[in-house]
């Protein structure tokens, strides 16, 4: 099975010059916790609700005037739409992420694949379980 068969399509993006307030409002209306950041039809980063909260608001930045470019995560982990889902799962485990940007071979954003997509759209219980375990390894707190 290929990534294109399970990925979420119709991905919404924000521009790097979008304010944190606008990005948060978009996330709220779409019921998402992450938005790709695109410039000139290319993905340049990802912004999460956590980026807005921790790198923005908690650091005293004004959400109405601070832009996404100031808090977004760069170095986006991605896969290609024609890759097998096993490779996408391996990238999630290796990078300890629950979502990957999906690009076509022209490096254009065509979707997002999540751990949830793998769980719901495939019968690969062992793949999903091992991926979840790998992703969660980094998130385990030593005190429970």
Q: What report would you give on this structure?
A:
The N and C termini lie far apart (36 Å). The chain is globular. It has 5 helices and 5 strands. Strand 3, helix 3 (85-95) and strand 4 form a beta-alpha-beta unit. It has helices at 20-30, 49-56, 85-95, 115-121, 125-137; strands at residues 34-39, 42-48, 78-80, 99-103, 109-114. The protein has one domain (3-137): CBS-domain, CATH 3.10.580.10.
Coarse morphology: globular
Gap from first CA to last CA:
36 Å
Radius of gyration in whole Å, from Cα? 16 Å
Q: Tell me the CATH superfamily.
A: CBS-domain
The oligomeric state of the chains shown is single chain
Which secondary-structure class do the elements indicate? alpha+beta
- Residue windows where pLDDT falls under 50 for at least 5 positions: 140-144
What fraction strand?
A: 15-25%
Strand order of the largest sheet: 3-4-5
Q: Under the CATH scheme, which architecture would be assigned?
A: Roll
CATH topology: CBS-domain
**Helical proportion, percent range:** 25-40%
By DSSP, the count of extended strands is: 5
- Tally of individual helices: 5
Number of domains: 1
Overall pLDDT confidence: 86
CATH class: Alpha Beta
